[in-house]
Design a protein that fits this description.
Blueprint: H1 5-29, H2 42-47, H3 49-60, E1 67-70, E2 74-78, E3 88-95, E4 104-107, E5 114-118, E6 126-135, E7 138-147
């Protein structure tokens, strides 16, 4: 059986469309290629971005900065020692880029200038830490990517 050029073009189009459809379906159903957004409220967070910049700038103006260290008990976050720890209020948010289920937020409750995040809550690897805190009516923010 001999095919003319019109039939060959139609067969080529059908094969090409089938090839494209295979990749579209494969990309939509493959769980390895499923990625979550960093934040579900992305647009709301974008509108508040200037406030975050202002808080980070105020935090950098302090004489001593927030520091963290890895200890046997967990992650030890140290607030500036020149501030009265009773007046420090806020939240600590730990974001795990590789697994959304490991993200958590905790309230800052201090008995001294240190806050301990227990080791059982932390897995080794990369974490993004965001500390949004207030001291006597002034808002501060500390952000850092850490390897725990």
């Amino acid at each position: 059986m001999k095919l003319n050029w019109g039939t060959g073009v139609v067969i080529a189009f059908i094969l090409f469309i089938s090839f494209i459809m295979y990749f579209v379906i494969a990309m939509n159903t493959d769980k390895n290629l499923d990625h979550d957004l960093v934040n579900d409220n992305y647009y709301k967070q974008e509108l508040e971005y200037q406030n975050d910049i202002n808080k980070e700038t105020k935090s950098k103006e302090l004489d001593s900065k927030i520091t963290w260290t890895k200890t046997q008990e967990g992650m030890l976050i140290s607030f500036p020692s020149e501030l009265d720890y009773n007046d420090i209020k806020g939240t600590v948010f730990l974001y795990r880029p590789s697994n959304k289920q490991l993200d958590f937020e905790t309230t800052i409750l201090l008995s001294n200038h240190n806050l301990l995040i227990p080791d059982k809550r932390m897995l080794d690897g990369r974490w993004n830490i965001k500390i949004d805190w207030n001291y006597k009516g002034t808002n501060y923010m500390f952000k850092e990517d850490v390897l725990y």
